[in-house]
Amino acid sequence: MKKITALLMAAMMMLCLPAAFAVELPEGVPSTLQAPTISNLELLKNEDGVPYFRVEVTVPVSVIELDEARPTDGWVDMEMEGTYGEGDDQEPLADGGGLSVWVNEENAVPGKVNTYYGTFELIDEGGMTETDIKAKAYSFRYRFSYTYYYGDGPGEWDYVYSPWSNELANKSESFYQDASSWAVGELDKAKAADLIPQILMGADMTKPITREEFAELALVLYEKTSGITAETVAANPFTDTTNPQILKALNIGVTQGTSPTTFSPKVLINREQCATMLFRTIKAIAPNGDYSIEGIKDFPDQANISEYAVQPTKYMSKLGIIKGDASTGSFMPKATTTAQQASGYGMATREAAILMSYRTYEKMK
């Protein structure tokens, strides 16, 4: 692994040199960078039959903008760190390069905003001719660094870093980075039922879910339960996404835009929005079903539920898919105060959304 060893030695030297000269950050240089998110680890082969791993790396807008602005004439690098092997035989992997070289149309993931392919070849220049992939465990994670200058003299440069991304492994028993203990059982059942979209593979399940992620989750539920493959809309009305999964969900009526021309894919969704999208999914699967909510009692916080979400929230509660708070019975549809907004009150997490999808599947299959 000559190439890998050289990369590691170079990285260690670069980290050690400027440490003694750390100074106050120059104007425009942030104290930290946002972390990337990685998903969809795949083992592929190139045209010469050489195996390589590929992941999808989502780059925060702030990192792209920093590399474009380049305060102090610095630049952003993307770094990959990983391991292969297990126990005493585990060895490090490393790779990296300038963000401006890597973030381009050639590496762009179709239909996903600011998401690019990251690759790592398993056969390197060190003379390895065969890689027994199945016998070894490979893991990968990514981060960004920004090199900046604080003077004109030798060594007057330093780095700021992002946190590491979530970690993906080819032999991981779970499909997620983290999950609450109460959710693990049903998450595994949802995975076994093929209800997890690629966009959520490798994600932290305890974090809030975005509109894009939930649209893909709902689409998988629709196709798996109905047995029908959805088709995309004839013309994309949105200017902020080209994700074909979103356009399919739009076509079957599962989701809508936030305006005639925007979808807002990265916006987080709350519990009443989650209930509404699931309700639309059920109606798309069974358009002639009985969706009466007669006799269903109001929630203690019924006044906080938006008018459009009254039927969906009560119907999903009727099915036992989305329930009120165990202690108060409140639905917690959305944040209504600044304090609630700050605490994430009423937001739907990824694991909660997946569990809702799985329970819906169990009710309707």
UniProtKB/TrEMBL annotation:
Keywords: Signal. Residues 229-292 form the SLH domain. It comes from Sedimentibacter saalensis. The keyword Signal applies. InterPro entries: SLH_dom (IPR001119). Residues 1-22 form the signal peptide. PROSITE patterns: SLH (PS51272). This is SLH domain-containing protein.
